[in-house]
Every structure is written in structure tokens, then in C-alpha cells.
Amino acid sequence: MTGNLAAPVYLAAEDLSMFGRDPWWLVVIKAVFCFAFLMITVLFSIVWERKVVAWMQLRIGPNRHGPWGMLQSLADGIKLMLKEDLIVKRADKVVYILAPIVAAIPAFMAIAVIPFGPADNQISIFGQRTTMQLTDLPIAMLYILAVASVGIYGIVLAGWSSGSTYPLLGGLRSCAQMISYEIAMGAAFASVFLYSGSMSTSEIVAQQQDRWYIILLPVSFLIYIVTMVGETNRAPFDMPESEGDLVGGFNTEYSSIKFALFMLAEYVNMVTVSAVSVTLFLGGWRAPWPVSTFWEGANHGWWPMLWFVIKVQLLLFFFIWLRGTLPRVRYDQLMKLGWKVLIPVSVVWLMCVATVRTLRNENYDFADIALYVAGAVLVLLLLSFIADMYRDRKDAQETPDEPVAFDPMAGGFPVPPLPGQELPPVPRRRPRRERELIVSGGVNTDSDGIDGPRDGKEASDG
């Protein structure tokens, strides 16, 4: 790692000459394979999710359709296609019908630039040599970001065109959530661009020959993991369709095949972001470290596709694990995490990565780079410590203001208290024995603040 950091690195010259040479029938075969890979992975992921969550909750899970219930998702898809297709009376029919299509199609487009194998080790399909990748671009990662951003329009248009309040709120939530988390995701991508010197997916995987970027850029990997959960609207960030708040979210007014398209888009996006994570941080199609050391042919032939699929399935299991473990967060917590935590951390980390890359290109030694980075961290910690001391002294000198009483009915309807606010004490009814003493002329206690007779004589005089 020391030698890798010390060597100067410049922009890589992408060699994309092996792409764009396939005959039309081979392009069609590869496109159909990418579509089939996504569909089969989605069908398997739905069954796997239901099985794993059932195992975590000590339930049986699906076990009726097919062996071990493996055809349950296929049966659900057929059932949704055969259900009655309804169109809401107040809906904008054209946009209402196009919204599921707009949400589903971009989810399939990103897989076109994901490499399933090495570009320099071509395979033979019907006697034709070709790469294990549909195509590649010098700006392939920007293409993925653009395609992922288009999918949000389907959700927003679905909520707006339904002509109902709760779907509209779900669409707006999803739009705000994607905008908030795409900024941090872009910063995480930029760190990879700086290290690899390229935006081409095949070149990024090629640059991870010696060491995966999850080791060199761990903060970027963690940021991307959080943002990809937010981008796909999965638990604990499934706010656009939170059943407890929005009845069902943006797809409340949808049924039959149009509802199935929204669910398909969500699971395809899960597979896509997992494939992007594997490509950027987990070595792509490369075999894991123990296998690649003692087996020279692990990264040749059809074997790279196996390692790629295994890594994608592990990340899909991570999605399922989160859903079965963490509860749904509040929307203010979701926004606070995106704007106040992920974005500042990603920007600071990007500056650190850019500084290290600049020092490497200037032929600085690893010891000098580590010394500069450590000095900058110590200066930041010292400034933070001084700022905290000054703030504590200032708070101690100021007299705390009296808290304003919280009125839950101020707006005309009851609202829950915010953090730091307390509900007023609820007046309680007197105990039965105390009421009997008051009625019979006994001692009246002022537990409720109401003035009354103090003893039996005053009660009898009254």
C-alpha cells in the first residue's frame, strides 16, 4: 500500500476500441442477456427476501409455489397481471399510464455499461469473439447518474397524476429524498474518479487489480452504501411509501400491471446500485483475494461472471438484512442525515482524497503525505476543541430563558410535542376516598389547585 500511494498517478488513457465492433445480432443477444439477468435476479431476490425475513422472524415464509416456494414471485407477477386494471376518475390519464413506464425503463438502462468480465479477455459466442459487457463509455458513470435521475420523474408524475393527496405527498417525499442523497453519492463517485483517473467502468475495474477501492476509499464506500439505500427507497429509508403515514405512497391509486411495474423498478434499482457498488469498490468481476492468489484462471473465461454475481447477491442480502433489522426513521431524521451528515462528510473526504492525489502526482513520499494529513487533522481537532470551550463558556454565562408553555391545541387540532417540549399535566380525578371525605365534611386537599373548605366546620357552615 505504501508503494501504491507513493507512485505518481496521472489520468488513465481508456482503450475502448474493443467496444462497438459486435454485429447487430450479437448486440441483441447481449441486450437480451442483460434484461434476463435483471429479471431473474429480481425474481430470485423477492423470494430470497421473503425467506430471509421469515427466518429472522421465526416464520415459515413462502413454501407453496414450486420447490421450496421458489416460484412464489413468478406467481405474484402473474396474479398482478391478471388483476383488474383501474384508472382513477380524477387522474390525468396520459401521465397516469406513462408514469410506471418512466419509472421502470431507466432502471434497466444502467446495466448496459456494467462489466461482467475483463475487456481484454474476450469470450466466444457462436464463434464470434466479444467482451462480457454490452458497451462502455468514457463517461459511463455520468451516464449511470443521469439514468438514475430520470427514474424519479416516474414516481413524481405518478403521485401528481393520481389526483389524490397522499400519492402527491409520497411523490414529493421521494423527490426530496433522491435530491438529498444524490449529492453525497456524486461526491463518493468523484473520489473513485480521482483515484482511477477515469469514468469508464471497465477502466475503474482494471485499476483495482492490485487493491480494491473499498480498502483505499473506505469512507466513500460507506457513504455510497447509505446513499444507495436512500436512492432505492428501501427500509429504513422507505419514506415515499410509508404505509403508516401515506396509506401506500405514490402508488396508492395504482393496480394490476402498473403497480407491478413500480415494484419491478424498485427491485431492479436494487440490483443496479449493487452492481455499481461492486464495480466501483469491490473489484468488479475480479475473484476475491484468497482465490486469486492460488488460482491463475480465476479471472479468465466465464469465471468472472460468477464472482460478479456472488458479490451482487451479498449486497442484496445486505438490503434484506437492513429491512429485517432496522425500523423506519422519521422524515426529519432522513433529511438531517442526508444534508447535515453525509454531504459534509463526503465533501471533506473528497478534499482529502484530492489533496493526497495532488501530493502523489508531485512525487511526494508516503511519509510526507501521511504527515501532512495528520497535521491537518490535528489542526481541525484543535480548532473544534477551542470552539467547543468558547461555546460552553458563553452558554454558562447566559441565563436560560423560561421555556414557553406548549399548547397541543394551538392550531385547532392536537399535535404531538417536539423534542424538548412537554405536554401540560393532565388534570386527574380525585380518588374516591377523598371525594367521600369532602362530601361528608372531611378535610379537602388542594391537590388540584381548587380552593375548597379547609375543615369540617367550614364545610358545615357553607
From TrEMBL:
PANTHER family: NADH DEHYDROGENASE SUBUNIT 1, NADH-UBIQUINONE OXIDOREDUCTASE CHAIN 1. HAMAP family: NDH1_NuoH (MF_01350). This is NADH-quinone oxidoreductase subunit H. Residues 414-426 have a biased composition (Pro residues). NDH-1 shuttles electrons from NADH, via FMN and iron-sulfur (Fe-S) centers, to quinones in the respiratory chain. The immediate electron acceptor for the enzyme in this species is believed to be ubiquinone. Couples the redox reaction to proton translocation (for every two electrons transferred, four hydrogen ions are translocated across the cytoplasmic membrane), and thus conserves the redox energy in a proton gradient. This subunit may bind ubiquinone. The keyword Cell membrane applies. It is an enzyme of class 7 (translocase). It catalyses: a quinone + NADH + 5 H(+)(in) = a quinol + NAD(+) + 4 H(+)(out). It comes from Streptomyces umbrinus. NDH-1 is composed of 14 different subunits. Subunits NuoA, H, J, K, L, M, N constitute the membrane sector of the complex.
